[in-house]
Every structure is written in C-alpha cells, then in structure tokens.
Design a protein that fits this description.
Blueprint lengths: L7 E10 L2 E11 L4 E5 L6 H9 L6 E6 L2 E2 L9 E4 L11 H11 L4 H10 L15 H13 L5 E5 L7 H16 L3 E6 L10 E6 L2 E6 L1 H8 L4 H14 L8
Parallel strand pairs: 3-8, 3-9, 6-7, 7-8
Antiparallel strand pairs: 1-2, 1-4, 4-5, 9-10
Helix pairs in contact: 2-3, 2-4, 3-4, 6-7
Length: about 250
C-alpha cells in the first residue's frame, strides 16, 4: 500500500438537496491507519458525508480525496470498503455464499471469505440464509463482505446498531486490529459512548463540523468529564459564538 500523509482529505465540502444545505463547508483530514469516529445526531449529515467520501454523492462545491485521488475514482474501487446503514447483501443466499461471492468479484481467495466471516463472529451461522438472520447479524454479513477485499480504507455507517454490548466490544477491538495493520477506518455513530473507542472524533451537527479533536482534547477544551457532556457544551458554545474554529 502506498503511504499517504492523509488517507482522507476533505476540503470545504458543501452538499445541497434542493434548497436544503446538507453539508456546509466541511473540512478535515484523516491519518492513515487510524480509527476516526464521525459522531452526531440523526439528520446531522453523517451518511451524506460518508457517501461523498466514497464517491457516490453529488456535491455542490469543495472536494474529497481518498488515498490522494478524487473520491469515486475507478482505481479506488478495490481500495475502499463501504458498509451502509442498511445491509447490502442477498437475502436468499447463505452467509458463506454472500461473502464468497463478494470475494470472487474482488479477486480474493475463498480462504479470505471464511476468515472475514470468522472475524465478524458468524462462523457458526455461515450456512444460514441471510433472510433468516437478525438485523444485527445481517449488518455483520455486510461488514464481512466489505472486509473480504482487504481494503486500504474502510467506511462504516453505524456498524454497531442493534448489536449486543459484548459483540460491539469485540467489533471495536477488531476495528483497532485492522488499523494496526494499516487500514484507515472512518466510523459513523450517534452513540456517544462509542466515542472513547476512537483515536480522533469528528462531531457533526446540522451539516457543520463542530470539532475535529481527540477525545482527550475535546474534554480539555470543554471542561467536561464525559464526551456526551462535551458535545452538549460545544453545541451551546456554537450557538453563542457561530464562528468557532475547529482544530486543523
């Protein structure tokens, strides 16, 4: 994998739908081999931002680059894995058939598919049809399909929704294991207790980036004991001083 100073580089990104501004001049950078959390309430623009980074979202202005290339460039298709909020798998196929199919179209070996299934904790259910699985299990099938191609960048939209606490813990540990291997992860969530599992946090509200800081920096900047309180204080501060600058 080629080394880049920034795995993801977003500059003054603005997205509109009709007359509504969904993202308003968003800028940030993500370091290679890191776990970055994209947090904010529902409707804040998280999914739109992730879609722009993957290259499937029409933008009004600004730019998003991934591994030094414009988002959506054909060369990035095998280098960027994307897991949407809604599982993008075939319900009439088994877990194993789904993951092996995605392995085939990405040129990965069958063994890689089986490894991805084990990594997301579905080895015992690999022969079961996806339609027979719970919502959380289907989400893990989607994650396995994204992992099977061994991407350099992994974009995850609410990957832990509906999962029990033990599995959430195990998946976050796996995310950090992937980062240790050099994979860059950008993970969205609206659950603030997951923020401490990230090396860096992007806090988004109403299409604007309120902060780009480590959890420790965010606590220090707001004087809050926990990150949920820190986020609330940022919102209040933003309302009082709209021109607050985020960290570079």
């Amino acid at each position: 994998m080629t080394t880049f100073e920034h795995a993801i580089d977003v500059v003054d990104l603005t997205v509109q739908r009709g007359k509504q501004t969904v993202l308003n001049g968003v800028s940030f950078r993500v370091a290679p081999g890191s776990v970055t959390g994209l947090l904010g309430p529902s409707g804040s623009g998280k999914t739109t931002l992730l879609r722009a980074i993957v290259g499937v979202q029409k933008i009004k202005s600004g730019q998003a680059k991934v591994l030094g290339l414009p988002a959506g460039t054909a060369k990035l298709r095998k280098q960027v894995g994307y897991v949407t909020q809604q599982p993008s798998v075939y319900g009439d196929l088994t877990v194993r058939q789904n993951v092996r199919y995605f392995a085939l179209i990405q040129g990965a070996a069958t063994a890689a598919a089986d490894e991805a299934i084990r990594d997301v904790g579905l080895a015992e259910l690999s022969g079961r049809a996806v339609d027979a699985l719970s919502g959380g299990q289907r989400a893990r099938v989607s994650l396995a399909c994204a992992l099977v191609g061994n991407p350099d960048v992994l974009i995850l939209d609410e990957p832990t929704v509906g999962l029990d606490p033990v599995l959430r813990r195990d998946l976050w540990q796996h995310f950090h294991d992937l980062a240790d291997r050099g994979i860059t992860l950008l993970i969205s969530s609206h659950v603030m207790d997951e923020a401490d599992r990230c090396e860096r946090l992007l806090l988004l509200r109403e299409g604007k980036l309120l902060a780009d800081e480590t959890p420790g920096e965010l606590r220090a900047a707001t004087g809050a004991a926990d990150l949920e309180e820190a986020f609330l204080r940022l919102i209040l501060e933003q309302q009082e001083t709209p021109e607050r600058k985020v960290s570079a």
